[in-house]
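Q: Molecular chaperone HtpG, please. Structure only.
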Amino acid sequence: MYMLEQGTITIHTENIFPIIKKSLYTDHEIFLRELVSNAVDAIQKLKMVSFAGEVTGEIGEPEINIAIDKDKKTLSITDNGIGMTADEVKKYINQVAFSSAEEFIQKYKASAEQQIIGHFGLGFYSSFMVAQKVEIDTLSYQPGAQAVHWSCDGSPAFVLEESPRTERGTTITLTLQDEEQEYLEPMRIRQLVKTYCDFMPVSIKLDGEVINRQKAPWKESPQNLTKEDYLEFYRYLYPFQEEPLLWVHLNTDYPFILNGILYFPKLKPDVDVTKGQIKLFCNQVFVSDRCEEVIPKFLLPLQGVIDSTDIPLNVSRSALTNDRTVRRIADYIAKKVGDRLKELYREQREEYIRCWQDVGTFVKFGSLNDDKFKKQVEDIIIYRTTANLTQATPETPPAVEVQSQEGDVWQEVTPASGEQQNPTSQYTTLKDYLERNKERQENRVFYCTDEVTQATYVQLHKSQGLEVLFMDSFIDTHFISFLEREHPDVKFSRVDSELDKTLIDQDKSGEIVDPKTNKTRSEQIKELFQQALNKPKLNIRTEALKSDDLQATPPAMVLLPEVLRRLREMNALMQQQNVEFPEEHVLVVNTAHPLIQNLTHMSQGSIIQEEGRSPTGELTNLICQHIYDLALMAQKGFDAEGMKTFVERSNQVLTRLTER
Ligand SMILES: Nc1ncnc2c1ncn2[C@@H]1O[C@H](COP(=O)(O)OP(=O)(O)OP(=O)(O)O)[C@@H](O)[C@H]1O
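A: Structure for Molecular chaperone HtpG:
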């Protein structure tokens, strides 16, 4: 073989390879991505010169072949791309590749300790991380080109000679180092190709079998993809996961190039919302599983793919966070997500409602964190309400979306899966709520944070025509504070924080004064409870609650004023623990309830008795305590002692009642 040249690669750092190897200690496997990327580039360059009419004849089917020779301990990557002439090898390999190697090391040292995303674009020399010897065998597409063979054993010395190769293209052969023999295992190579090269647009073969997918759906135009295509791609990316709720296809080339598909997953309580799940690609080459820097914080739980050549990849993560383009990309993503949600709200309301439970969390979190996003979505934030906004009865839920005359409220359709919320649930925006209720409760919002424990309170409001919003997702506590800042004139009260005057029957308190004691009925009841409960800090109030069905209203209710409750919630948050239910709460005794009325009659019988044991008086006390416990139950659970007392007292009361 004719020797063309023997020489040393001009680099300024003596023996660059040990440094490369050490710098990238954990990331050796990426050499394959780099070599396959070069092969894809070579094929694309050939296509370009062929389009330009510079190639005579057919260029054939482009492909990349990976071959393993366990005996020789070699791994080779062959492409039928553009190839290189001897001069090009000298220029691109000896000079370009190695000067970029040097540059990389300088950069790497400068940002020591800093993690660099995916060590992307390290290029040809990264093969020295795993190889003790690297050979290039190549034939350029140029007419009459001489094939050449280059080899280098890891020292700066190289050999360049003529090669008998007759096929256009390039073969890179690595003789693997002893400790890198894992790359002789076909399984390992398959796994690497699947990770890094799955969506590269050229078929990659191992032992004659194509092992990559090639098609990158995010590069397609959204018009060409069906719902099933998106779902299929999702299942491929995240096998064994529940179907995503919806997706956003990103597609822009100005002012930066960005493609991608982002999926809204169904949120799991155990999901780590600080850890991104989106895969970052650069020109269909996988770069990293982590690209938190590029995604707005509130969208981190999204899944899917983004692909951009405009994200700088060989910089530290902190540099990336501060990069202007990256910040603009993050803004763009937020905007696109907002647009998609608005579109869904406008065009597929029932679908929007179906997803709201999960999507709403993103939207609220985003509104809290991103002012621009907030402005975008503020009109599409919805709340489940107690209002009956349509005529449909629960037995015959409509099969399609029903809009009211105003066009601003709607009825949810029966969800296909059946596991969604109550099909008769209705939703409203805050704006519509305020508008609808402005006559009766201007600038006042009643809300419920727990449908089960606050059921009595909700029922009471509902029965008097007061509309209650359900704000029961974990983010809502913060979100209510946010809404209050946004709407300073609107007052938000939880249903159990106070009694609106609408709920109280002002006439019924029309008081009969007992001639014997000179006290009103209400005063007697209050005293009765004060004595029975003996809690100086408890504020006992008597009110006649309005009701259409006396049995459905409670005999008593515990109220915790909004301010007090929030203070307590804040303390709990800060101390990371449950804070005791404050003793300074309000007990409203419902003088209109038959139980309370019976109680006064009963106690009157006992009060006038002479001092000493009074069985009726004791029973009255027990019942008062019991009524209080029942009311308290809506606010807090029992501790062990409380539970024991409650059960014992229940039995005692029942026994006494049956004795009579
Ligand atoms: N398989 C190949 N076929 C043809 N030319 C190649 C091949 N591999 C490498 N080259 C040439 O060698 C040059 C240097 O490659 P190297 O991988 O170091 O850097 P790069 O591909 O230019 O950039 P990057 O750092 O993004 O990988 C390439 O630009 C290309 O001209």
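A: Brief note, in case it's useful. Residues 338 and 376 are 6 Å apart (CA to CA).
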